[in-house]
Amino acid sequence: MFCEKAMELIRELHRAPEGQLPAFNEDGLRQVLEEMKALYEQNQSDVNEAKSGGRSDLIPTIKFRHCSLLRNRRCTVAYLYDRLLRIRALRWEYGSVLPNALRFHMAAEEMEWFNNYKRSLATYMRSLGGDEGLDITQDMKPPKSLYIEVRCLKDYGEFEVDDGTSVLLKKNSQPG
Amino acid sequence: MTEEVDFLGQDSDGGSEEVVLTPAELIERLEQAWMNEKFAPELLESKPEIVECVMEQLEHMEENLRRAKREDLKVSIHQMEMERIRYVLSSYLRCRLMKIEKFFPHVLEKEKTRPEGEPSSLSPEELAFAREFMANTESYLKNVALKHMPPNLQKVDLFRAVPKPDLDSYVFLRVRERQENILVEPDTDEQR
Fold first, then answer.
1. 20 to 30 A Cα–Cα from A15, which one of A1, A87, A175, B81?
2. Probe site for chain B from A36, A113, A125, A167 (most B CB atoms < 10 A)
3. Domains contained in chain B, CATH given
4. A116-157: per-residue pLDDT in tens?
5. Cα–Cα distance between B149 and B142 in angstroms, integer?
6. What is the pTM of this model?
7. Residue A84's closest chain B neighbor by CA?
8. Strand partners, B18
């Protein structure tokens, strides 16, 4: 049946959990495009027949092939777009340089899209003001260092906090 | 920190005037913009004044910290404050970028058809980013697949293909001041 290959592309992505990028199915894509070409050519000749030969009985078949063409296109674009979304997520997950394993799963054009996206994002971040702008791919989680209130029960002396500063702990003081 | 921040805000009759805010008030406005953006399904009005002023404040704080004595406990506290503010600002900007990317054809269309005088949902830099994103994606789809398809199928209308933000989704609100006469449309059967 038509559009089987296109459905396979979709299924492939559906199976891959979020964040994972399966290898680019170049072969699958090629087969879908070939099917589209064949369908289109068959329709072209049938349309001519229908027009000049008065074969209006061909019209349902023509419509059916057209629907298959539209479906193939929709599946293809969905496949490619979903991959772009996954690739976009990689920039936010891994930073500017992608691990080799992932790069091998990308088509050359996808890599180009990624580089353009990176550049666009960098330009935007730099424009945020100050010397170098603001790297919004950092600070993904709220700051973790907990601020604890401490009251000293007895003299301890100097205490070093994890960022290197020292605090003097004296009985009954609350240095925060 | 007792200096005040010059803030280009809007006064009640809609004119732009300089409003002077304390840093605390600025941060409150940032947090409000942040929460609004997080809870709204669509991209809200851009607030470049807030972003600019907060960036200035962060720079200021960094300057002060560089000059302060290392052992002073105030340093850690100010550092944490800075991290917190940086987190809120980054989160706010990230939220906006995500919406811009997710709804890019609609965001761009809205900007194109924006009536004069209406404030933009995009800062100039965000607009540039959105345009680049659109161009990048369109050109990619064309080169990888569309140009190999039959001639009458090579154009894909991204405005129709990419879903719009769901303005009917539920949102949480908190009432800050008493208001009179707000009408909330009742849930009709179609809207369920």
1. A1
2. A113
3. 23-161 (1.20.58.1030)
4. 999 999 999 999 877 778 888 888 888 876 555 566 666 666
5. 9
6. 0.82
7. B137
8. B8
* A118 bridge partner residues: none
Query: What are φ and ψ of residue B111, in 5° steps?
Result: -70, -40
Do residue B149 and residue A36 have CB atoms under 8 angstroms apart?
Answer: yes
Chain A residues 40-99 with a CB less than 8 Å from chain B: 40, 69-70, 73, 76-77, 80-81, 84, 88
Q: Do A142 and B144 touch (CB under 8 A)?
A: no
Whether residue A64 is predicted with pLDDT greater than 50 in this model: the reply is yes
Q: Record the tokens describing residue B58, joined without a space.
A: 């962060």
pLDDT reading at A10 higher than 90: yes
Quickly tell me which residue has 């002077």 as its tokens: B20
- pLDDT at residue A176 greater than cutoff 60: no
Q: Write down the ipTM of this complex.
A: 0.83
Q: How many residues does chain B have?
A: 192
B contacts of A84 (beta carbons < 8 Å): 137, 140
- To test the contact with chain B by mutation, choose from A31, A127, A132 the residue with the greatest count of B C-beta atoms within 10 A, namely A127
**Cβ–Cβ < 8 Å for B39, B172:** yes
